[in-house]
Amino acid sequence: MLSQAEENYLKEIYALGEETQKLVSTNSIAKKMKTKASSATDMLQKLANKGLVDYTKYKGARLSKKGETRAMVIVRKHRLWETFLVDKLGFSWDEVHDIAEQLEHIQSKTLTNRLDAFLEYPSHDPHGHPIPNTNGKIVASESIILAELKVDEEGIVVGVKDASDSFLKYLNKINITIGDTIKIVEIEPFDNSVTIDNNTQQITISGNVAKNLYIKSE
Amino acid sequence: MLSQAEENYLKEIYALGEETQKLVSTNSIAKKMKTKASSATDMLQKLANKGLVDYTKYKGARLSKKGETRAMVIVRKHRLWETFLVDKLGFSWDEVHDIAEQLEHIQSKTLTNRLDAFLEYPSHDPHGHPIPNTNGKIVASESIILAELKVDEEGIVVGVKDASDSFLKYLNKINITIGDTIKIVEIEPFDNSVTIDNNTQQITISGNVAKNLYIKSE
DNA sequence: AAATATTTTTAGTCTAATCTAAAAAATAGG
DNA sequence: CCTATTTTTTAGATTAGACTAAAAATATTT
């Protein structure tokens, strides 16, 4: 059985590797874990010994097959619990992360699967992130980012790429949430900011924000 | 914040002190925690330094006011989660203890209270144990033990004193569960075994079993 | 009450996960 | 391409929680 620390490292290595598919650096892991590079090195060596990561000194690490399986279980649990907190207990999507960070370490396969059933097998968590199935597989999603839409095109907000507290709070403030239908009114070539219409209002968001919103075409 | 180990000790000291109201011995704590007496001593000293237990060398320990408050929060969480697991996820009462042992350490007052609301403020967990309220108070229960009933008296099973796995499995086997109405048919003076009738069957249980069943008069 | 047995504490070790400081390797700039 | 900077690793220390072995206190027997 893995310790919570080991599980957290696996999860972060997964998250960092997801984007680039490349080796993850010791420093980037240390930063994510809010610890020192030396501590990250120690942990990488331990995880490598257990066969959970492929690690080359001074080069970086990536999850092994075995490590990825473990990571996906944790991601699955995290996202199921977030769904539970929002759908059943009435939390809002910007309140659930820290609690799910704790709940994701509860050990019980039966519990995870019964929770999944209780939630009626959700495919995405409250942030629009896909929930891996029992086998740790993520069903491919056909979403794109808002920044890829052109003027007059429409889509439905299905998720956020950046689920940080500050970003979610910002979305709450400007009244954008999952399920909103959004139409592109104007794109400012100078800074890539986008003016959108979500039926109730017309607002301008920065290019950066547009890159962090997942959209599905209607 | 307390570590999980500290929380577990507090909970066990509470459980051991509940019965007798007296000082709890180092050895009995060690046994409950499945550790060595020396480890228990270490922890008692630490908890005493934090003002969570009153501890006298070679004498034993009891929870301080502060320690009891903390213990009750943990007991409350444990029993709420057990209720969730049985009522919402369909576990049976003999399957939930180990999972609740993990869930009881999740830190979030809001979560605990929302869970309580979601479960519609249950007064007792699936084993019939009372659930402390937000202030850590247990609402007095008027139940007695089955062994105190006389021949021909009736009552409803409302809980078990011993919630051990083996006892719960035994009750399942002989088809006794919470809510059953039970009538005393005969008491054998020789060994205090009791023959009972729960409408569907007549069975004989040992005096020890009779001492571990809580009964409410109709 | 002395001798024996049991319980509890102390002293010293161990492991996991962290840290600081210093050494080693990799990268970047002139 | 060689020096400066950054990144990464190693070495050694620390803390929480557990352990063993031995010492100290308490309980039990005779």
From TrEMBL, chains A, B:
Cellular compartments annotated: Cytoplasm
UniProt xrefs under InterPro entries: DtxR_MntR_Metal-Reg (IPR050536), Fe-transptr_FeoA-like (IPR007167), Fe_dep_repressor (IPR001367), Fe_dep_repressor_sf (IPR036421), FeoA_core_dom (IPR038157), HTH_DTXR (IPR022687), Iron_dep_repressor (IPR022689), Transcriptional_repressor_C (IPR008988)
Positions of the HTH dtxR-type domain: 1-64
SMART domains in the record: FeoA, HTH_DTXR
Primary localization: cytoplasm
GO terms assigned for molecular function: DNA binding; DNA-binding transcription factor activity; protein dimerization activity; transition metal ion binding
Keyword 4Fe-4S: no
Pfam family, one: FeoA
Domain of life: Bacteria
Keyword check for Manganese: yes
SUPFAM superfamilies in UniProt: C-terminal domain of transcriptional repressors, Iron-dependent repressor protein, dimerization domain, Winged helix' DNA-binding domain
GO biological process: negative regulation of DNA-templated transcription
Keywords, in A-Z order: Activator, Cytoplasm, DNA-binding, Iron, Manganese, Repressor, Transcription, Transcription regulation
Protein task: In the presence of manganese, represses expression of mntH and mntS. Up-regulates expression of mntP.
Subunit structure: Homodimer.
Family from the record: Belongs to the DtxR/MntR family.
Listed PANTHER family: IRON (METAL) DEPENDENT REPRESSOR, DTXR FAMILY, TRANSCRIPTIONAL REGULATOR MNTR
Protein name per the record: Transcriptional regulator MntR
Source organism (scientific name): Maribacter polysiphoniae
